[in-house]
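Hi support team,

I submitted a single chain yesterday and got back a structure, but I'm not sure I'm reading the token output correctly. Could someone confirm the output below corresponds to the sequence I sent? I've pasted both exactly as they appear in my results page.

Thanks,
R.
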Amino acid sequence: MQAISNLISKLDPELVKKYNLTEIYQQVLADPDIKQFLQENQTKITAEMINKSLPSLYEYYTSKQRKDPVTNGYRPELFINNQAIDLRYVPEASKLARDRVANTKKHLQLIKLPQALHDVRLSQAEMTQGRSQVMALIQQFLAKYAQDIHQKGLYLSGDFGVGKTYILAGLANQVAAMDQQVVFLHLPAFIASLSSHFEDNSLQSEIDRVAQCDLLILDDIGAETLSQWSRDDVLGVILQARMDNVLPTFFSSNMAMDDLEEHFKETKNAIDPVKAARLMERVRTLATEVVVSGKNRRR
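Hi R., thanks for writing in. Yes, this is the structure output for that exact sequence:
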């Protein structure tokens, strides 16, 4: 705490001329917030404590009059510290809200998806008949996830524009707010971008980042163009790692699971039903299919 002489020296010179120290202290003790604090703690506070704590009370009083850039986002708060009244700065509600948003964004990585998805909340998703089942299952997942992160995910199938990606964005932000690392990626664009990682030898670290995150969401699976390598050595490796470690994985697709298996059979150069079946076994182990229906909201 600064000495009272130092604090007084920071006052406007005209104010110092106009009032003596006694009058200034009278102003301080007449402050409604200070009066309320003293009244609420009257059984714990003595006159000697007030006298000893006048510098703290004065700093509290002046800090409310002027906004200091150093303490921007914080408000002064009085408290009893042993045999004295002391001052601390606590975050304002607006700062806490900003910090929560920043923390959520830090824990959610969007890959090849619009950054606006950072702002989606589950509470904003319109509840319709076609969404009621998936919303109920997501709430069940979140309740269980809060107790144990090793949970089975969901495979959201349905037509274009029914809100699958939007709902999964709300889920992603809610899990990120729990301080869990979430990766949410658009699978076709992610697969197409992998060649860029050959140049700097970062392919393995990129695959590991996706495979090992706390919660993974693969958006638009089934719309990608697969080679044998991207199917078996990228997607297959990622899903196998998540299955082995029981890490929750969510999917969205315009295809039902059975149709997705047909999609996986054919790559650019070959048809391989065995490898497709093996990959689909991982998908089915990781997620339960739920159909999302409704009108196309993109139109």
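A quick pointer for reading it: The first strand starts at residue 74 and ends at 81. Let us know if anything else looks off.

Best,
Support desk
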